[in-house]
Amino acid sequence: MPTAPAPFREIANAFTAKIKSGELKPGDKLPSTRQIAEQYGVSMNTAYRAMSLLHDRELITGQPGRGTYVAEPRQ
């Protein structure tokens, strides 16, 4: 019996789809982890795991003190 993906994966997949479709473009600033947690009704840890997965996928980049942004596509 199939199970639903973990909430952090659902959030990461939603952002991945927005990036791949061009809705979010390279250089666009993403909401804070707190804002994502509130928007999706999840814990801060779940939102952090979603952002970490996007970072692992090389779709976002963090700039200390400034925020998290959509990364330039890899060549």
UniProtKB/TrEMBL annotation:
**Pfam families xref list:** GntR (PF00392)
HTH gntR-type domain location is 5-73
Q: Which domain of life is it from?
A: Bacteria
Q: Which UniProt keywords apply?
A: DNA-binding, Transcription, Transcription regulation
Q: Which InterPro entries match?
A: Bact_HTH_transcr_reg, Tscrpt_reg_HTH_GntR, WH-like_DNA-bd_sf, WH_DNA-bd_sf
PANTHER family, sorted: GNTR-FAMILY TRANSCRIPTIONAL REGULATOR, MANNOSYL-D-GLYCERATE TRANSPORT/METABOLISM SYSTEM REPRESSOR MNGR-RELATED
Q: What is this protein called?
A: Winged helix-turn-helix domain-containing protein
Source species: Micromonospora cathayae
